[in-house]
Amino acid sequence: MTPHTLRVTGMTCEHCARTVEKTLNGLSGVRAKVAYDRGTAQIDGADGLDLAALRAALAPHGYGLETLAGDGTRGAAIPHESGLHIAIIGSGGAAFAAAIRAAEAGARVSMIERGEVIGGTCVNIGCVPSKITLRAAEIRHERGHHPFEGIARSEEPVDRRALLAQLRGRVEELRGAKYQKIIDDNPRIALLRGDARFEDARTLAITARTGEVTRLTPDRILIATGAAPMIPPVPGLTDTP
Q1: Is 152 in contact with 159 (CB distance < 8 Å)?
Q2: Which pLDDT score is estimated for 18?
Q3: pLDDT at 79
Q4: For 176, which DSSP code?
């Protein structure tokens, strides 16, 4: 088998790398090792490398594969040093995926965030805090209702203040690892704080909290500000926890 090194696009954290690796290794005759820090996948294929099949397997998860210069695999190479200036409004998962991909291709990225907190739903208010809370609740329940004789059961109250402090600490830790570190480690990505608005079709005005206005005229602009859920007009639904 001839190993091929391919660039993986769309990864924003180590968990992404494990997802890509698991998906590729689930294909018949494929052995893959993915390195998040390098953004690459080392792939061996028993029957050769079917790049189209690999891409098709990753596409539903939001990832892509591209060839690197000097690799004999067929496929379009990433246009390095494109020289483009790309502005991205927002700093969530989609914004970071786009920023990483653009920087990989040689673009200069200006990411604009009006809030104090960067990052998407998963780390800040979604998957991470909810899973910590659910696991804590499970442990609390098991402590008082486990089936084992000889082990004391306890119904002591929960120190919610301490639990919340631990949860917030973990969220801040992961936010730093999954988002802030990417900005700090990539000189092609810059974070601007402030409200962005279009002055015309090509010009963005970013107003900081101090009132200072910065104007950008990038080659490309991506609006990645996320969305809010729509609550259907069902009587009583808005009052339901």
Answers
A1: no
A2: 92
A3: 45
A4: I
For the chain, first and last CA: distance in Å?
56
CATH of the domain at 38: 3.30.70.100
Same domain, residue pair 43 and 112: no
pLDDT in the model for residue 46? 65
Strands 108-113 and 85-89: parallel
Q: What is the pLDDT of residue 82?
A: 53
pLDDT value, residue 68: 66
Q: Is residue 35 part of a domain?
A: yes
Judge whether 37 lies within some domain. yes
Shared-domain flag, residues 27 and 94: no
Give the separation between CA 11 and CA 39, rounded to whole angstroms: 8
Tokens of 96: 């970071």
Q: Strands 30-35, 40-45: parallel, antiparallel or unpaired by DSSP?
A: antiparallel
State how far the Cα of 104 lies from the Cα of 69, in Å rounded to an integer.
13
pLDDT at 226: 87
Domain containing residue 99: 85-120+168-223
How far is Cα 199 from Cα 35, in angstroms, rounded to an integer?
41
Task: Yes or no: say if 132 and 123 are a contact pair by the CB < 8 Å rule.
Answer: no
Helix (H, G, I), strand (E, B), or coil: what is residue 156? coil
Average pLDDT of adjacent 10-residue blocks, the chain of 241 residues: 79 86 92 86 79 90 76 39 84 93 91 93 90 94 92 90 95 91 91 95 92 92 89 87 71
β-strand partners of 191: 111
Q: Are 93 and 39 found together in one domain? A: no
Looking at the DSSP assignment, which residues form a beta bridge with residue 45? 30
- Residue 111 sits in the same domain as residue 174: yes
> Are residues 61 and 13 part of one domain?
yes
Give the Cα separation of 202 and 217 in Å (integer).
6
